Amino acid sequence: MALxxxxxxxxxxxxxxxxxxxxxxxxxxxxxxxxxxxxxxxxTFMFEDLLRRYLEFKGFTVTHVMNLTDVDDKTIRNSQQAGxxxxxxxxxxxxxxxxDLDALNIRRAHHYPAATAYVPQMIEMVKTLVDxxxxxxxxxxxxxxxxxxFPEYGRLANLKPEDMxxxxxxxxxxxxxxxxxxxxxxxxxKAEDGEIFWDSPWxxxxxxxxxxCSVMSTELLGDHFDIHCGGIDNLxxxxxxxxxxSVCATGKEFVNYWLHSEYLLVDxxxxxxxxxxxxxxxxxxxxxxxxxxxxxxxLTTHYRQKLNFSLxxxxxxxxxxxxxxxxxxxxxxxxxxxxxxxxFLDDSMKSxxxxxxxxxxxxxxxxxxxxxxxxxxxxxxxxxFSQEGKLLAMSLIERFDSVLGIxxxxxxxxxxxxxxxxxxxxxxxIERNKARKAKDYDMSDALRNEIIEAGYELIDKxxxxxxxxxxx
Length: 472
Ligand code: AMP
Ligand code: ZN
Prior knowledge:
Blueprint: E1 4-7, E2 12-15, E3 23-28, H1 39-57, E4 61-66, H2 73-82, H3 86-103, H4 119-131, E5 135-137, E6 143-145, E7 169-170, E8 182-188, E9 205-207, H5 209-221, E10 225-231, H6 235-250, E11 255-261, E12 264-266, E13 269-270, H7 281-286, H8 291-299, E14 307-308, H9 314-333, H10 343-357, H11 362-381, H12 387-404, H13 407-420, H14 422-437, H15 441-453, E15 456-460, E16 465-469
Helix pairs in contact: 1-12, 4-5, 4-6, 5-6, 8-9, 10-11, 14-15
Bound molecules: adenosine monophosphate and zinc ion.
């Protein structure tokens, strides 16, 4: 089977074929940095990480762009409430976002454009739309896109032109399908915006949210690129409006594949900041839920199914991770007998790819991995697993992990738990003292370095060595 994805604009699966052979240009709508991202947001970012990793696993060179929305109604409102200048205010949440990405071992995008760095290009695109008569200026110096001028409007969200509320306008960035109307490309300055404005041909103002993504995606990936992703709530109006803006401004096609992930729910409701029903990554880490488990819980439900997040599933996730890790460790120790690699190994890789090629069917992919583990364990129990099979299994499991991204986290957590256990440091100090007594200074220095790297300070007193945790 060829690699295929469910393409929202076609409402069916499409075989994936990039514009340039072997290269994929991927744009993913990033966080609005007015608060901490919650695990609902990370459900979408995790799906995008899985997509990116799987494309790379398949041998594509991916250029990945994720924008940071640093100027919009929400960032302006919250920075004002906090009494902090906008850029300083958003910097704090940008840093928190990157810390969370790293904590979850999400591969960094190649570019993280911030909307405020692209305002001149946004003004340019709005100007083009006005010049081409797709947009008009209102009395307050705002500019609106005229949806009646674009017959394809509504194609992504499957809306009918007769439902358009022609003649009406919507100034807010977010609204429902029932309110399909002309939307703001540029927002004339209002008192609430305070000092956040730019000069433009229409007077002082700021960009609308939708134009931000049209501009940052085309600036960094070209007018026509391969994949555009986001959560399902981005589909309308955000992505519908992006299509209208980009296609009308450039006169070219915009995006070939639109992929959307479903919601993460709590108690069957969408997790969102406005409903105050959210967990952040630090919230979960503080509850001693390791990052590997958070990653697993976000990753292992198919991206187009709703994911009902529940802490009851922690144990189940832990069991799955333990099985994979103990298989990996067992392989390392196992000697192996003479003979060729067993055929079930190649079959497991084929079956993994067959599932993942089918719109990232993660359950099927994991099924293939666990089947390999079952077979491998059975052969090792009977001491009938070949040396070659063992080596192949070791390389396959690393290859699967290039898609799952859990080993780095698990290894980190294992080191941390050793470090948090005081018996570890005490044993190391005894070992080091023995080495010093034996005048084996290479060994005692190596041990000292190991202890320091693990985050401790050592203080040598005349008759004892004391330790404390280093504070940054
Ligand atoms: P925002 O910071 O609100 O612009 O959202 C960033 C990304 O998270 C967007 O792609 C949203 O579609 C996505 N998102 C927001 N809430 C959820 C949720 N509960 N489940 C899944 N994705 C979400
Ligand atoms: Zn966007």
